[in-house]
Amino acid sequence: MMSVLTIVLKLEYHGFAYAGFQRQSATRDSDVSHNMANLVSGDSVPCGDNVSGNKSDCVPRASKKGRHQAPITIQSQIEEALVQWTGLTLSQLRVRGAGRTDKGVHATGQICAFDVPLNMLNHMGSDCSSVNDAALPTLRLALEKLNEGRSDSGCCIHALPRTLDQWQIRRAISTRLPADIIVRSARIWCGERPFEPRQGILRKTYTYRLRFRSSNCQPAQESHEIINAGPSLLRRFNDNNSIWLCPWALDERSLLKTCELLEGKHNFYSFVHKSDRRMLESDEERAIRHTNDLIKFRVDLIADGEDDFDEPAKVLEATFSLQAKGFHRSMVRLLVHFVVDVARGKRHRSEMPRLLSEGDWKGIYPDEKYLGSVLNTAPACGLCLAKVEYEHAENKFL
Length: 398
Prior knowledge:
Layout: E1 4-13, H1 34-41, H2 74-86, H3 90-93, E2 96-97, E3 106-117, H4 136-148, H5 167-174, E4 181-188, E5 201-214, E6 244-250, H6 252-262, E7 264-267, H7 274-278, H8 283-290, E8 291-294, E9 296-303, E10 315-324, H9 331-343, H10 352-355, H11 368-374, E11 383-390
Parallel strand pairs: 3-11, 5-6
Antiparallel strand pairs: 1-3, 1-4, 2-3, 5-10, 5-11, 7-8, 9-10
């Protein structure tokens, strides 16, 4: 029998002001207050203003003060809100998420769970004093719904009417969060086993937004200077550090073709963070750990608005959509930048077999010097964790 009440949250957040999702310990370069101060004052690096395009993370500049304080993360903000509302400790709440999004990365479908010990909700005298009076009625009501929704064997009774969103819990948490972190839903887990957001995942979906100028001009306009004008002319008032303003003109047909070729089952060893590559010793271990089935790698292109005049080269907005059971660290951003480099003519699709250890390069892994010269990481600002889907979870929520 479960000893905790588990609440599962679906989160949306704008990651610009945060050092990622996962709670972090104090580091030499971290500053709790400076990120949010920069967001308000505008002392930041706008996404896309790094004309070189190499490894720009689109996050606030570092501060020289407060260097021994833990950085602000999404998890730390959720934990602070839950502690304020429930009065429980972090060890009791055990907040955990489905993905460790990096600093500056956004989410519209992050899954986060926390626990409330049942002995603090039942009528057991002094134990209930650990839960704040403001939270106790709402959490007890959730426990009653859980008990009603279970059979004697501990499984959900599917015939019972269920409320997909426990809005009282959602409201209580949301009122204690900053405006750039949103609780989209709160549901009660009633599965037979404890819910762990990082286990039993069927697939994850990431999206990446990019705005660029097309290099497919009319013959008379091929050499127009606006092609190389940089990202400043691509800005829009509502970008809000959530899109990469590409400093290069791109061939949109090449974008589509390269994404199509990267779909499917490949060894993505080259497309992971370099620190993760260094942890692996044998070629066999590399093949096992980094062979992923990239179920989907598509890009949707739309024209950027309707102007009152015809620009010499059209502006397009691309939304990449990548779907797989799991992604390695920096994998999506490395893939997107490689596709962009091919579309601007810096790299060629003929390099893909070597990067994926396929064809004549099967089993031969590129060295770090080669990878460092070939691959770059797309800015974090365009990346968003869009959706997390679980195996056999549809009937295990109240």
